[in-house]
Design brief:
Family: Belongs to the cation transport ATPase (P-type) (TC 3.A.3) family. Type IB subfamily.
Organism: Dorea hominis
Strand content: 25-35%
Bound molecules: adenosine-5'-diphosphate, magnesium ion
Radius of gyration: 21 Å
CATH architecture of the largest domain: 3-Layer(aba) Sandwich
Structural class: alpha/beta
Helix content: 25-40%
Protein name: Cd(2+)-exporting ATPase
Subcellular location: Cell membrane; Membrane
CATH topology of the largest domain: Rossmann fold
CATH superfamily of the largest domain: HAD superfamily/HAD-like
C-alpha cells in the first residue's frame, strides 16, 4: 500500500501542474543527482528567429522564399521560424516530392529544381560544398541541386529561469548536468556554457541520443537516480531509459508524454524544482 503522505505529495504536485505517474517516482526524485536535458524546446524556447541571411546565389529574398516554401511541409520549430520571417504568400503547390530527414532537414522540388534545406550534415550527404559557418546560432544551409545557394542563421532563446533552475540543481541537489542535442557543437556549447552545465553532447542523430546516454552512464558510477527531461518525439527513448523521465509542456509530443514518468503541464523549467521540493518534503514526512 502507498503511504498517505505520497498521495498527499502527488495531489499537491497535481495542483501545481505536475502530473506524477506513480509514488515511486516521487521517492526517486528526492534522490536525483544526475539530470540530462534535451536542448531545443527543453532548455531553449524552440522558437527561432532569423538573424542573418547570406545569399551566395540570387538575392536574400529569393533564398528565404525558396527555403520557406520547402519548410512549409515541415513541423520542426526551424520551419516555423523561416515561415515567420518570410513576408510573402506560401504556395504549397509550387513544392513537390518532399523528403524529410530527421536530424538533417528536408528536400523538395521547387520550380522544377531539387532544393535541400538543412544542416551541414545534409549538405555533406548530397556532396554539396558550402561555406561552413561557426555560429552560436543554428545554421540552415540551402542548395539548389548540388549548388550551394546560401545560408540562413537563426537563433533560439534560452528559456526564462533556465539558469536559475540549473543553479538550483547544482547547489541544492549536487547534481551533474548534461545536455544531449542534435544541434551543432557551437550552438550546443553556447547554451551549455551559459547554463554552466557539466557535459554537452552535440551533433546527435535522433537515434544516437540513447546510445550516447548509455555511454555517459558508464562514467557515472556513483550515480543515485537519473532524471531525463525532454519534449520531442526524439526524446522518448531517453525518457523511457531514465529512472525519472520528465516531459515538458502538455503540448509536447504525445510520445514524450507517454514515455515520461512525470509531466509538467506548463512549459516551465522551475516546475522541476517544485517537483523536487515536493518529493523531499514527502520523504521527510514519511521517514
Ligand atoms: P534537438 O535534438 O536539438 O531537439 P533535432 O534532432 O530536432 O534537434 O534536429 C537536429 C538538427 O537537424 C537541427 O539543429 C537542424 O540543424 C536540423 N534540422 C532538423 N529539421 C530541420 C528542418 N526542418 N529544417 C532545417 N534543419 C533541420
Ligand atoms: Mg527538442
Amino acid at each position: 500500500s502507498i503511504p498517505i503522505a505520497f498521495l498527499g505529495g502527488i495531489a499537491s504536485a497535481a495542483r501545481q501542474g505536475i502530473v506524477i505517474k506513480g509514488a515511486n517516482y516521487l521517492e526517486d526524485l528526492s534522490k536525483a543527482d544526475t539530470f540530462v536535458f534535451d536542448k531545443t524546446g527543453t532548455l531553449t524556447e524552440g522558437e527561432f528567429s532569423v538573424q542573418e541571411i547570406y545569399a551566395e546565389q540570387g538575392t536574400e529574398e529569393e533564398l528565404l522564399k525558396i527555403a520557406a516554401h520547402v519548410e512549409s511541409y515541415s513541423n520542426h520549430p526551424i520551419a516555423q521560424s523561416l515561415l515567420n520571417a518570410y513576408d510573402g504568400e506560401i504556395d504549397k503547390d509550387l513544392v513537390s516530392n518532399i523528403k524529410q530527414i530527421p536530424g538533417y532537414g528536408l528536400s523538395g522540388d521547387y520550380d522544377g529544381k531539387r532544393i535541400h534545406v538543412g544542416n551541414f550534415r545534409l549538405m555533406e550527404k548530397y556532396d554539396i560544398e558550402v561555406d561552413e559557418f561557426d555560429s552560436t546560432g543554428t545554421v540552415v544551409y540551402v542548395s539548389v541541386g548540388t549548388e550551394y545557394m546560401g545560408a540562413i542563421i537563426i537563433e533560439d532563446a534560452i528559456k526564462y529561469r533556465a539558469k536559475w533552475t540549473m543553479k538550483y540543481l547544482k547547489d541544492k541537489c549536487k547534481a551533474v548536468l548534461v545536455m544531449l542535442t542534435g544541434d551543432t557543437r557551437s550552438a550546443g556549447y553556447a547554451v551549455a556554457k551559459e547554463l554552466k552545465m557539466d557535459y554537452a553532447y552535440t551533433d546527435l542523430m535522433p537515434s544516437d541520443k540513447l546510445e550516447q546516454l548509455e555511454d555517459f552512464l558508464t562514467i557515472q558510477d556513483d550515480m543515485e537516480k537519473l532524471v531525463c527531461v525532454g519534449d520531442g518525439v526524439n526524446d522518448a527513448p531517453v525518457l523511457a531509459r531514465a529512472d525519472i523521465g520528465i516531459a515538458m509542456g502538455a503540448l509536447g509530443s504525445a510520445l514524450a508524454i507517454e514515455a515520461a514518468d512525470i509531466i509538467l503541464l506548463e512549459d516551465e523549467l522551475p516546475k522541476i524544482v517544485d517537483a523536487i521540493k515536493i518529493s523531499k518534503e514527502t520523504l521527510r514526512v514519511v521517514n
